[in-house]
Design a protein that fits this description.
The chain has two domains: 66-383, Glycosyl hydrolase domain, family 43 (Tachylectin-2, Chain A); 392-586, Jelly Rolls (Sandwich). The chain has five helices and 37 strands. The strands form seven sheets. Strands 26, 28, 29, 30, 31, 32 and 36 form a seven-stranded mixed beta sheet that branches. Helix 2 (32-41) packs across helix 4 (352-358). Belongs to the glycosyl hydrolase 32 family.
């Protein structure tokens, strides 16, 4: 990695490369006939799909095969660890083990041998997702879901311990003989009972964790379990929280500071107990039916063992980490930089036959720092600062460029298939803003589908065309559109829609190309708004208004590949916009999973 200039950094890379190398929540099971059909269909996959230029350059992924949920991320003795659901035998879901990779900086990664594989009765038929907890003495413990009956997909919770706590790489894990430690008793649906969270310790000395489940036909549930020793667990009399949303997978529950600081809070930190008035809690759940993550911000009553969202409608009108292809996420507290970091999985949007032909499927999103917005209403997210080390030394800068209605401006001077772009827009007037249709006031996705990037508007759509071909036959649009409030008379704060429109991203057949969108809770009355897009060959991650809305999209150009990919600023609205400043960097490749 050329941006690492110090001898210490280079020594670290050498050390990594000399390590011994060996090599959920999305439980889509393919039977033998489906796999055979996918393999046969792979012969007809377009050449551009299997082009190596579509494999991401700086996102986390192993050299081959299927990955899904990030599991048990942690920082231990100077090393970042990421475990993840991995199929060592192919590019579709199945044969899942916990793969394990380590890093000094969350950007350069080397794979170790799998940490957890089916090996005991309690996980013979599956080692699914889970979390890590740091004990009082600083050593980690992993709790994970095992499947111990193949016929009914019976799910239990197991514990794993490091064989040698003095090993900073945590290369070996042991499963005690008393597994499973939590079983689905008392009327719990044993086929919908998984993904234990990081535990937190209460003033009574008991550890607590959540397990996601489904009650009845449609109620998502987060059950609370308590233990003194991580061996004997007792379920609380009532769930921490529940809502009629469908099954809750991969729950996450953690504190955030409510005093305007961007620092993270350790889940079991004494600060949480000592300064409860300055702390809010976040409860995140992955919706099995809808395939997205949503969260609420609220209050945790430690005595009642209950969580109450601040917004009574929070479980209905969902705040999301990401309004695109982002699922089964997991956060952890990073004590080295006193921050909370979010990992999330992005699946492919092509076909299983495409994945078989490529030999790989799935990536992890760029790790994000998360903190509570000063309003206290939502989280803010931003790519970790370490990713900026991949930026080339000579950015392209565009300043004070007016883009008239119907105009587009190419950004030249760099290769943009693998780039980081930051842009600040300024709208001269909001008078042309269209009135928001009340029927779509809570449905950004539907609004974007109806009013895509090519649908001329009042204020917007304006933004970026990324991974665009020379003749614009292919392009992925990331844009804003501003509306007058749906309230009678149009009074109130203007409504900002952020959207990614990949409907023209590829001429390849059989590609899933949904528009993704979210409303951005920002004040644009001064006409100013910002956008950052991380472009990486077959993925576009975008952050609107400083991280108030985020959208990840998978795209598979057939023309706009490698040196043939272009970048444009466009404006399809009636109002002029100004690019106050656009800065674009080519992105270098990190060390990624060498020898795995």
């Amino acid at each position: 990695m050329g941006v690492l200039g110090s001898r210490v950094a280079w020594a670290w890379l050498v050390q990594l490369l000399l390590l011994q190398q060996l090599a959920g929540a999305s439980h889509v099971v393919y039977d033998d006939l489906e796999l055979q059909a996918a393999a046969a269909a792979a012969d007809g996959v377009p050449p551009s799909i299997i082009d190596s230029e579509l494999r991401t350059g700086y996102h986390f992924q192993p050299p081959k095969n299927w990955i899904n949920d990030p599991n048990a991320p942690m920082y231990y003795k100077g090393w970042y660890h990421l475990f993840y659901q991995y199929n060592p035998k192919g590019a579709v879901w199945g044969n899942i083990v916990w793969a394990h990779s380590v890093s000094r900086d969350l950007i350069n990664w080397v794979a170790l041998k799998p940490a957890i594989e089916p090996s005991i009765r309690a996980d013979k038929y599956g080692c699914w997702s889970g979390s890590a907890t740091m004990m009082a003495d600083g050593t980690p413990v992993i709790m994970y879901t095992g499947v111990n009956r193949p016929d009914v997909n019976y799910q239990v919770q197991n514990v794993a311990l490091p064989r040698n706590g003095s090993d900073p790489l945590l290369r070996e894990w042991v499963k005690p003989g008393h597994n499973p430690v939590i079983v689905p008793e008392g009327g719990i649906n044993a086929t919908q009972f998984r993904d234990p969270t990081t535990a937190w310790r209460g003033a009574d000395g008991h550890w607590r964790l959540l397990v996601g489940s489904l009650a009845g036909q449609s109620r998502g549930v987060a059950y609370v379990y308590r233990s003194r020793d991580f061996r004997r667990w007792t379920r609380a009399a009532q769930p921490l929280h529940s809502a009629p949303t469908g099954m809750w997978e991969c729950p996450d529950f953690y504190p955030v500071t409510a005093d305007g600081r961007r620092e993270g809070v350790d889940t079991s930190s004494a600060v949480v107990d000592a300064a409860a008035a300055r702390v809010k809690y976040v409860l995140k759940n992955s919706l099995d039916l809808r395939r997205y993550d949503y969260y609420t911000v609220g209050t945790y009553d430690r005595k009642a063992e209950r969580y109450v969202p601040d917004d009574p409608a929070g479980d209905e009108h969902h705040l999301r980490y990401d309004y695109g292809n982002f699922y089964a996420s997991k956060t952890f507290y990073d004590p080295a930089k006193r921050r909370r970091i979010l990992w999330g999985w992005a699946n492919e949007s092509d076909t299983a036959a495409d994945d078989v032909a490529k030999g790989w499927a799935g990536i992890q999103a760029i790790p994000r720092k998360v903190w509570l917005d000063p309003s206290g209403k939502q989280l803010l997210q931003w790519p970790i600062e370490e990713v900026e080390r991949l930026r080339g030394k000579r950015p392209v800068i565009l300043k004070d460029r007016v883009v008239k209605p119907g105009e587009h401006v190419e950004v030249t001077g760099l290769q943009t298939a693998q780039a980081d772009v930051e842009v600040s827009f300024e709208v001269g007037s909001l008078e042309a803003a269209e009135r928001l249709d009340p029927a779509m006031a809570y449905d950004a996705q539907r609004l974007c589908s109806a009013r895509g990037a090519d649908a001329r508007g009042g204020v917007g759509p304006f933004g970026l065309w990324v991974l665009a071909s020379a003749g614009l036959e292919e392009k992925t649009a990331v844009f804003f559109r501003v509306f007058r409030s749906a309230a009678r008379g149009g009074g109130g704060k203007p409504v900002v829609l952020m959207c990614t429109d990949p409907t023209k991203s590829s001429r390849n057949p059989n590609i899933y190309q949904p528009t993704f969108a979210g409303f951005v809770d920002t004040d644009i009355t001064n006409g100013k708004i910002s956008l950052r897009s991380l472009i990486d060959r077959s993925v576009v991650e975008s952050f609107g208004a400083g991280g108030k809305a985020c959208i990840l999209s998978r795209v598979y150009p057939s023309l706009a590949i490698g040196k043939n990919a272009s970048l444009y600023v466009f404006n399809n609205g009636k109002a002029e916009i100004k690019v106050s400043q656009l800065t674009a960097w080519e992105m270098k490749k990190p060390v990624m999973m060498n020898g795995a």
